[in-house]
Amino acid sequence: MQSINIVWLKRDLRLTDHQPLQHALEQDLPVILLYVFEPLLLNDPHYSERHWRFVSHSLVDMNQQLAPYGGKVSILRGEILSCFKAIQSLYSIANIYSHQEIGLSCTYQRDKQVAHWTQAHNIPWIESPQGAVIRGAKNRKEWDKHWDRIMRAPIAHLDLNANWLTLEHLKDYTLTLPKHWLKKAKGQQTGGTTLAWKTLDDFFQRRGKEYYRSISSPSASRYACTRLSPYLAWGNISLRELYQQLLGHWQVKGFRRSLVALSSRLHWHCHFIQKFESESAMEYRCVNQAYDALLSQSCLSDRDKLNAWKQGQTGIPLIDACMRCLHHTGYINFRMRAMLVSFLTHHMNMDWREGVTHLAQLFLDFEPGIHYPQFQMQAGVTGTNTIRIYNPTKQAQEHDSEGVFIKQWLPELKHVPTPLLFEPWKMTQMEAVMYQIELDSCYLSPIIDLATRAKEARDRLWSWRKLDQVKQESQRILQRHVRLDDHN
């Protein structure tokens, strides 16, 4: 039986700076590049069709790059262990190579099953670190130095002239990518390494100089930010590749302030994924466990209001504009994401778990290791981070002062002038008629009163923060998760 190496692709859909692939290519054995659409993820509430479309585009792009070398990614559908067993019936699996996955509970349980199976069959499964994340880290001692060392390490250039094998004869598992996954979605970014590098090049050639001043604007950030977050989330480009490109432009005139800001965000990227790696139970519970009882006692449950938030029908213009933008494009900037979570958990007084999978489905760049620590941080249930209750009206006035973003996504308000645009419920009935607003519009009667709910949230959150059980848990969190020079 022929011996082979398998490179199991997950969130690392590229052919560069890829340690598992590098290890496989260094051996004189045929290589199978494997991507499996697993039912446990296809049916998981964190994911939606937009994610599988992005993955499909990424795989097509990889195959176009591999074609000159006679290679191709084998695309299967099924439970991963069933796929491995089917491959094992045809070949002798010498090694399985993959990146460590800092994923959801379902992928962690799946990985434990894979580890048990590979051990039982004496098949080495070699996992490479993902970025600068340290598996099983108990604290952050020397973590920043480790990050810097990993990001500055040489990038290996892979020789794709290899003995490639494909699995097209596994008829029970082979998947032909659905046509609707291969179509481009208007307004949403398309996956693939080729577009990742074009997006990065465009940032350095014309967009990046405005990054530092435009990062908070819901409109300007769509152009001035790198827009690489989905390419990083799905591994079309590595964080190290991006960081070294940043260093290569460090002396370019006019870029320094933007690159300082971007460099900080790249540190932040691994910092939060490391938090999730070190305490992945935060997928289900508050990282500060004292808050679980507090939320269960105090949070409201209202399906109608929750659905209004999900669909962008709350009557608060910037909240609704952001949510509708997400539905259409899969992207809004960091500040607007934080505001959506703050509004749900603070103004609406709902448990953060009520909205966590909804936003995951919408974020094209959904990354579990960033999503959960960030969601809890913005919900104010860590006990260690600054409590931020975002005022959507103030955010609109400061970051969408002309109402460009709001009017783009809320056409029913297109005739309303500023400043009424930011607080349309203050309109008189005559003004509503003048500006063509339906009298039953949610913008004349929002689902909550912002001022009242903000005061209630401040009182609630700060009273909780002072509780002994919250403080005790906070000390544990600081010891485990906080870099010595960073308390955020």
TrEMBL record:
GO biological process: nucleobase-containing compound metabolic process; response to light stimulus; response to stress
Domain Photolyase/cryptochrome alpha/beta: 3-133
Keywords recorded for this protein, A-Z: Chromophore, FAD, Flavoprotein, Lyase
Cofactors required: FAD; (6R)-5,10-methylene-5,6,7,8-tetrahydrofolate
Domain of life: Bacteria
Cofactor remark from the record: Binds 1 FAD per subunit.
PANTHER family xrefs: CRYPTOCHROME, CRYPTOCHROME CIRCADIAN CLOCK 5 ISOFORM X1
Annotated family: Belongs to the DNA photolyase class-1 family.
Full protein name: Deoxyribodipyrimidine photolyase
